[in-house]
Structure formats: C-alpha cells, structure tokens
Amino acid sequence: MPELPEVRTVAKVLKRNLLNKKITNIKIIYPKIIEPNSLDFNNLIGKRLTDISTKGKFLIFKFEDLYLISHLRMEGKYFIKSLNDKVEKHEHIIFEFGDLSVRYHDTRKFGRMMLTKNLNDYNSLAKLGKEPFEINKEELKNKLKSKLPIKELLLDQSIMSGLGNIYVNEVLFASKINPLKKGEDISLDNCQSIIDNSVVILNKAIEYGGTTIKSYTSSLGVIGQYQNFLMVHKREDKECKVCGSTIINIKVGGRSTYYCPKCQK
Ligand SMILES: [Zn+2]
Fold it and tell me: Where in the chain is the domain with CATH 3.20.190.10?
C-alpha cells in the first residue's frame, strides 16, 4: 500500500512530466473510482495543470481553479503513456495531455478521486491530522489520550497523517517504544521522539523513492529503495540489527506489527 513517501514520489514524477500541460480529453472507463459528490470531470478539459501537492496519502492536482484529489488506497498507480497506446486492463480513468496519456491503474478498484473547487469539500481530506513535519509534541500528546495501543493510534490519520503500517513499525522501533503501550502512557518525550523519528524516516524514504514491497511498486519507472533500510518491518524471526534479539510479529488492531521485544520495552 502506498504511504506518504510513495505518494510524494508519484507526485514528484508526475509534476516533472505534466506541469503546465493542458488536459485535452478525459476518458472514464470505471466511474465508481469517482466520488458521488464530485464535479463533472469534463470541467477539466482545457484546464492547465498548475501544481501537484500531497497531504498525508492524498495526491492533490491543481488545475487553475479546480482541485483533483486522488487517493491511491491499496493498489492505485499512475502510468504515463503515449496517446495511441492500447488501453490495458485495470486502467480506469485516462487523462489526455496532448500526446501524453496518463492512466489511473488500480487492480483492486479501492482508489478514489474527486474534483472540487474547495479542498474541504472532501471529508476524508478535511479531517486529516497534521503531518509529522508540522505537528508539535504537545499537540500529539493531546491526541493520544486513549487506552488504545500506540501502534493503532499512529495509524489513525486523523491523529497524525502520513504514517502507514510500514513506517509506524519503523518509527516505534527507532523511538524504542513498545507498540502495545497505551496512548495515554506515552510521555511528552516519547511524543518528541515519535515526531523526530517520523521526520527522519519519512525524509529518508522520500529520498530513496519509497519502499517497494509486495503489492506496491511505484509506477512511472521509479523503484523505491527504502526496503533496504527497514529495521523491523517484514523481519519476523530475524535478528534485531541493534541488539541481536529475535524480531517478532503480532497483530495489533488487525495489522501486522513487527518489533524487538528487547529494544522496545
Ligand atoms: Zn533489539
């Protein structure tokens, strides 16, 4: 599943190829990708792409006065092809920019898009918490007042946005925090450590083009390299790179949670 570093990588590559280009045509093959309260995508025809940004795991394409919001969810990808390339299976929405054809590809069809004039019209975007780059330790501590395990709370995008399962596992290891520790027991120092490690890990993952793991491969010919730096994620039964203990894998809130029982007490 693409997380913040992968989404930023996709944004960067799309921006490099498409900035200032005008949409000449749109083909909607599978309309259910589009949210029901979206503006009609035909409004995009003739509009120029003026920016691409990200918030949490959302891609935001700015077309003059319109925003196209895209959430890749499990398997969404963008491919840039030539106008005349054959439409392949799983290509659901096609944006034509002159002789370039940008294909939204999604094998699971869980991704969603919305066209709007106001970003706050998209509920799941409006209720996103701050990213680790913006939040401070007091704000984070306030949001963690809960009996739920810290692992589960950090996956809640309304508390802090941008960390998915891979990076929460890595951040908790780097912060020496047990994933089962209750949110309310996380100290102010722990909060600072979570924020600092999130920033370091996300920046490094962005630098390396994200993590290419199992289902997710970055589209557009970019292969993430961050999997080479993972300390605990997917390292069940392997030696901890810090203390040599065995990494274990448990389920927390239904998600695979990898940690070192010695480093993360
Ligand atoms: Zn260890």
Answer: 4-126
> Which one is the CATH code of 137-259: 3.30.110.10, 3.30.428.10, 3.50.50.60, 1.10.8.50?
1.10.8.50
Arithmetic mean of pLDDT, 18-28: 97
Domain with CATH 1.10.8.50 in the chain: 137-259
Task: Using the predicted structure, report yes or no on whether residue 12 has a pLDDT greater than 70.
Answer: yes
Residue 32, classed as helix, strand or coil, is helix
For the whole model, what pTM was predicted? 0.84
Helix (H, G, I), strand (E, B) or coil at 227: helix
Q: Which has the minimum average pLDDT: 22-26, 73-77, 245-249, 250-254? A: 73-77
Predicted confidence at residue 96, as pLDDT, reads 97
Measured in Å, residue 215 CA sits from the centre of ligand 1 at 28
CATH architecture of 4-126: Alpha-Beta Barrel (3.20)
pLDDT above 50: residue 58: yes
86: Cβ contacts below 8 Å, ≥ 6 apart: none
Q: State the catalytic residues.
A: 2-3, 57, 255
Burial code (b: 16+ CB inside 10 Å, e: under 16) for 34-70 equals: bbeebbebebbeebebeebebbbbbbbbbbeebbbbb
Q: Tokens 């909060």, residue?
A: 191
Ligand 1 geometric centre to CA of 247 (Å):
7
Please answer whether residues 182 and 147 qualify as being in contact, where contact means their C-beta atoms are separated by less than 8 angstroms: yes
Measured between alpha carbons, how far is 115 from 31 in angstroms, rounded to an integer?
13
Ligand 1 center to 154 CA (angstroms): 21
Residue 104, φ and ψ in degrees, nearest 5: -90, 120
